């Protein structure tokens, strides 16, 4: 169970504790089944109660419960010693005295690991952070059990991994490096984080990747998903922007090197429909391979898909759209890719597609040229990548004939 904790901030009034000793602002001798009941003062914007624990881990079969005492409350749990948090039991957040459950923020910059028997159950929403007060300093979040944030789940970490269930109606993944579960070798479609809606059938997914080296993002949504990965956030957001691509109409001057973070890999799968979100700058950016795969329809939703970062594209660094129904009913598709990389459709899209390729001009500058006649192709990602993983001749399966879909 957790070590000794100190209450550093409390705007909610007197709390009560069972299964632990509370003396002043110190909680100690926390026992299995302990319950911490918050005070009766309702929350206001930016209000919270903060517990700083000298170690926060839970053994298998043990539970600690936090209950609200009024609406609008937020709990912040900090692990402030040098140990990582191993959650083999259950952190449970509940509503109390007729109030909804509080929002939970659980932070340990030494890392958080939820093992197969463990769970973080926070039906009022939760942030689980392997990063502390910095966007660049921290450790990993790994989940082999269940992390359920109800309406809102936000995971931040040096990397994010595990075979467990990440549950939330809205899920945000923020990482400097990898968000995936690479346990199946070259079978990349089987290496995704397992994302689920907490209730219903839909997940609103926000991806946030901002490290200095190529990144790997690989997720499988069990249900339908709306995916958002914009070039910039709303005004007032203090999070670093996603790694930049060269925007439409932009150019890179001669002698300026290609970005160090270019050349990563992204796979987003949904068992249902997959749709791109239109909020903010109305773009979806990632400087590396982009695979969007849906069991139902794949809707680009008029969003500009931009992966442009290099003039010397590599194998499997293109854009791959796989679905029985590729559409964009609110406006034609716009895709910006790298020189030598293709835009691959598993079937002909229902709407027109405009494409551009990033190339060098005579001065050494990098900029986009129209690529409608040579970039689009008909190829199925799952077929070629599984052939490659099985040691078969994947290149024999490639259709090299371009198809103009504009």
Question: Can you tag this structure with a few keywords?
Answer:
single chain, mainly beta, 15-stranded mixed beta sheet, 406 residues, 2 domains, 14-stranded mixed beta sheet, 1 helix, 41% strand, Pectate Lyase C-like
Describe the structure.
By secondary structure, this protein is mostly beta strands. The protein has two domains: 1-168, 3 Solenoid (Pectate Lyase C-like), CATH 2.160.20.10; 214-234 and 242-406, no CATH class. It is 2% helix and 41% strand. The chain contains one helix and 39 strands. It has one helix at residues 381-389; strands at 5-10, 16-18, 21-23, 26-28, 34-37, 49-53, 63-67, 74-79, 85-87, 90-94, 103-107, 112-114, 119-121, 126-129, 141-143, 146-148, 153-157, 160-161, 165-167, 170-175, 178-179, 193-196, 202-209, 216-221, 224-228, 251-252, 264-270, 274-276, 283-285, 288-294, 297-299, 304-306, 319-322, 325-327, 333-338, 343-345, 353-360, 366-370, 376-378. It has a 15-stranded mixed β-sheet that branches. A 14-stranded mixed β-sheet has the order 3-4-1-6-8-11-14-17-20-23-25-28-31-34, with no helix packed on it. The protein has a six-stranded mixed β-sheet with strand order 26-38-37-35-32-29, with no helix packed on it. A hairpin with a 2-residue loop joins strand 3 (21-23) and strand 4 (26-28). The termini are far apart. The model has no long low-confidence stretch (mean pLDDT 96).
